[in-house]
Write a structure and sequence with these properties.
alpha+beta; 2 domains; 5-stranded mixed β-sheet; 32% helix
């Protein structure tokens, strides 16, 4: 698909994706983190569209459910608490041990959001 064809398709109400998120990041100097649901009201960060160091004017979080991206305001206190718990467990386990295996950037559920 050419750029012209893509732009034409999007201009008729097409849903945006990574290209549109990246365009937003560059034009608004705002970092975007994308999360996916992993069950039991928990989320894992899968993608980070990062603004170069010193240029960011903030960050927004999106949840991707496979079809659509939704804005979410994460409960930062709960994220920090979960990160401390993971750090504590990973310090107690040997490198590559069970405490660190399969762990990603888990976030708080949007239900705790404002």
């Amino acid at each position: 698909m050419t750029v012209k064809d893509y732009a034409k398709r999007q201009s008729r109400g097409g849903w945006g994706g990574c290209i549109e998120i990246l365009a937003f990041v560059i034009s608004n100097k705002t970092t975007v983190w994308v999360w996916i649901p992993i069950g039991h009201g928990r989320y894992r960060r899968t993608t980070c569209f990062q603004v170069p160091d010193g240029q960011s004017e903030g960050r927004i979080d999106l949840v991707h459910t496979g079809v659509h991206y939704d804005f979410v305001q994460l409960n930062k206190a709960e994220i920090i608490s979960q990160m401390r718990i993971r750090l504590k467990h990973s310090m107690m386990a040997p490198p590559g041990g069970a405490a660190s295996r399969g762990r990603g950037e888990d976030g708080a559920p949007p239900g705790g959001a404002a």
